[in-house]
């Protein structure tokens, strides 16, 4: 098993990072640092290259589950956990950065903010966006996974976060895996239930947006929007 420290100096990604900066490293070198070791038949660099060759785009890495990682040759529990932790940390940093500067002025802003979270999912995911007095996002929280109906939506959980965050308003967002953003009867009933609870809590409901493939539907505006 060839470790990074056993490689020639010019080929060591850690040495190159220290000398040239992390920006100078290729994708496979960054992955090699996370993997730390190769296998009996592959160096850590070769292993990293073989893993990346499985994907057409780098962003596909964030969709790979733990079980899928450990099924790849040369990837065990330790390597899978390290990569998943690094990817999740990166997503949280990006999300926090985005949420500090995003202001919601129109339905297109909601779509832009949520499309990367919801476009590839095979189940319905229900999110709540919590906003301040200036309609700037304080937090984006996933609260439910599964088909939306009144029995599985819990207003208490939705609005306890609003209280903790001192949110002035909320926006509900969920996806339709079919790609059609047209709301169902259950979507309308769930919206009505949440709006009733919001009035009691003194929180404004700005919208409930249903996300589809390159489109979304604003329940408050009763209008479907299409995007390129």
From TrEMBL:
Keyword Methyltransferase: no
Name of the protein in its database record: DNA repair protein RadC
Alphabetically ordered keywords of this record: Hydrolase, Metal-binding, Metalloprotease, Protease, Zinc
Family: Belongs to the UPF0758 family.
Segments forming domain MPN: 103-225
NCBIfam families: PRK00024.1, radc
Highest taxon of the lineage: Bacteria
CDD domains: MPN_DUF2466 (cd08071)
Organism: Paracholeplasma vituli
């Amino acid at each position: 098993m060839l470790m990074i420290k056993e490689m020639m100096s010019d080929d060591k990604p850690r040495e190159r990072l220290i000398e040239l900066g992390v920006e100078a490293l290729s994708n496979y070198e960054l992955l090699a640092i996370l993997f730390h070791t190769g296998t009996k038949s592959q160096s850590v660099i070769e292993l990293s290259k073989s893993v990346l060759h499985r994907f057409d785009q780098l962003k596909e890495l964030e969709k790979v589950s733990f079980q899928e990682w450990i099924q790849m040759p040369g990837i065990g529990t330790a390597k899978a956990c390290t990569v998943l932790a690094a990817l999740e940390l990166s997503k949280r940093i990006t999300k926090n950065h985005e949420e500090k500067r995003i202001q919601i002025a129109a339905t297109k802003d909601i779509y832009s903010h949520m499309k990367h979270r919801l476009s590839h999912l095979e189940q319905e995911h229900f999110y709540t966006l919590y906003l301040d007095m200036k309609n700037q996002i304080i937090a984006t929280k996933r609260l439910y996974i599964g088909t939306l109906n009144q029995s599985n939506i819990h207003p208490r959980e939705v609005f306890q976060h609003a209280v903790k965050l001192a949110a002035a308003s909320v926006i509900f967002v969920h996806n339709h895996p079919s790609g059609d953003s047209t709301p169902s009867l259950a979507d309308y009933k769930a919206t009505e239930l949440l709006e009733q609870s919001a009035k009691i809590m003194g929180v404004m409901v700005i919208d409930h947006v249903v996300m589809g493939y390159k489109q979304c539907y604003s329940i408050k505006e009763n209008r479907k929007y299409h995007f390129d």
